[in-house]
Amino acid sequence: MAPQREWLERDFYADLGVSSDATADQIKKAYRKLANELHPDKNPGDAAAEERFKRVSEANSVLSDDSKRKEYDEARSLMASGRFRGGGGFGGSTGGAGGFDIGDLFGNAGTGGGGGFGDLFGDLLGGRGGASSAGPRQRRGNDLETETTLAFRDAVQGTTVTLRVTSPSPCTKCHGSGARPGSSPRTCPTCNGSAFVTRNQGHFGFSEPCPDCQGTGTKIDDPCPDCQGSGITVRPRTINVRVPQGVEDGQRIRLAGQGEAGMRGAPSGDLYVTVHVMADKVFTRSGNDLKVQLPVSISELVLGATVSVPTLDGSVGVKIPAGTSDGRTLRLKGRGVPKRSGGAGDLLVTVKVSVPAKLDDAATEAMKQYAEAERASGFDPRSGWGR
Q1: What is the CATH number of the domain that holds 347?
Q2: Same structural domain, 372 and 288
Q3: Second label for 146, Cα 20 to 30 Å away, from 1, 197, 269, 286?
């Protein structure tokens, strides 16, 4: 059976243990569960688990991408209906509107249309869309995901974190070429480096990845002993990530080229880091503004005062006007979250009366005198209230 058809018959939904109508959230949840169970760190030396981990990652890379998933579903539906036809088809009618040319599926790279099924299955097969002279298209590595947790102020001000990731990475011995150091891959004589061969069967032609080079366009006579010619080894690595200032809880950071390595020196995928931000005991956040509650006494509100308020850069003095109401919010310009475009949000200071649980005799007597003076002045805190 042609390798192209083997890929089409691969059931990515079964690999993830979900139904074909699973939602994006269900697919994401299933992938995370399996990736956690099968991760090489938890199964050292288990080749079967490592292979299963790769299959799960590969399935997720297709099904988690809406456009790739749609193309995959459509291609499998067409194959199941037997609608592939001549000029490279797998069977069915040699003409008519009901047929589907496999060349349309794998060979549109040179038509100027771009994208389409050829991009998806070219990635899966590690080759290119058709048999043009442009040469084989390398199979890019899968994207990876990880998480990190930051203190509130580190997220607001920006920081550098160190991540330890275990994933398929370029082999350090052969630098990803797959060949033993001192040797090099050579052009495959069967496909002349095109990565594809064509064979005829009756009235039909099959264009398929070259069986001698597995669709890479090159042959390795002396494979690297560490990676057995794949150019990839699973190993832990340390990545220093610069987290930009103002990052929010749940935000994802993309690290280009830090994902899973591609086969035999092909480009690596990307690494996506989801940031979780811990709560702060002083500040809360609303967009680019910071919020803080300031405890004050009744006398400070009545008489006015200048009090110290914490900011990201230390404390500053804030003037409370005489007669300020409890719950009033004072705005300090430019003391909030730094903006990537320059400047910063504001610090919103909400005053909150703190009442003493107990007063000594002198303070009690003073408070009684104040209450008498307050009534004498005609002040009624409930004037107009409840009507």
Answers
A1: 2.60.260.20
A2: yes
A3: 286
